[in-house]
Design a protein that fits this description.
By secondary structure, the protein is α+β, with helices and mostly antiparallel strands. The chain has 13 helices and four strands.
Amino acid sequence: MDRAENSAALRAATVGQRRAADAPRTADAPNTFADALSARYGHPVEPGSLPIGPVVEAMLQHRSVRAYLDRPLPAGTLELLVAAAQSAASSSNLQAWSVVAVEDPDRKARLSRLANDQAHIRDCPLFLVWIADLSRLDRNAQALGETAAANRYLEMFLVAAIDAALAAQNAALAAESMGLGTVYIGAMRNRPEEVAAELGLPPDAVAVFGLCVGYADPAKLSGVKPRLPQSVVLHRERYRTEGEREAVAGYDAAMRAFQAAQKMSDLDWSRRSAARVAGPQSLSGRDRLREALSALGFGLA
C-alpha cells in the first residue's frame, strides 16, 4: 500500500470510528464511570473526583469477545489499528515487533487448529498475529556490514516480546474505541514452529500471541470480568503480602457472583490459578518454549 492509499484507508477508518463513537450503548454497558469502576472490581467503588475521559472509560469496559458477527470491518480498519500500535512506546525505538494480518478463512482455520481449535479464530473477520521480531534488526545490521551479536541474548528477546505486547494493547484499545471486540490468543505459543511455518516467519521471529478483532455478537457478549483488588497488586514503596489471603478470598467471592450471573462454571480464581501453574502439563505444550525459540533462531544467553 502506497502513501496515498494508506492515507485514504486511515481516513475511512477514522470516519468509521466516529460513527462507532456515536452509536448507542449496548444494554449492559455501564451508564456512569462509577458503574464501570464497580463492575471492574465486582463491588461498589467510589471513583473520587478525578476528571475521567473516554479513554479510561473504554479501558474499564474491556471484556474478552469470543463470539463475532458475520460482518466485515470498515475499510481502513487494519491500517488504523497498526497506526495505533506504532504509537506505543518502544525500547530504544528499536520497534522490534511485526504483525501478520490474517483474513483468509483457510489460514485462520489452520491457525485455529494449532491453538486448541478455538472457534473465534475462525469466526473473527481479522486475526492479528503479533511477532517478537529481531529479524529486521539482523537484516539492518547485515546491510550495514555490522554484526547483531546482542540479538543472541535473552534481553533482546524480552525487548521484542514487550514491544509486541505494548503495540498490541494499543491496537486493542483502538479497536474497542471503534466499537469492535477483541480477545488475545496466547495459544499461538502452543506450537510455535508450526505457526512460524504457516506465516512464513524468518529466523529470529516468533509469534507471541494472536488478537481476534471483529464486531461482537451481542447475544453472546459476556459481562466485565472482575479483577483482583488493588490491595493485592498495588504495593507502595515496598512489596508487601500482609492481608493478601483475605483479599484473594474476597475476590473468589466476587468471581463466584460473576460466574453465577454469566451462567459459567463455578470455580474460585485461587483454585483455577493454582491448577494453571501446577506443573508443565498445565502449559499446553509451552513447557518446551525455550527449545522452540532455539529452533527459530533465538539465542537466550
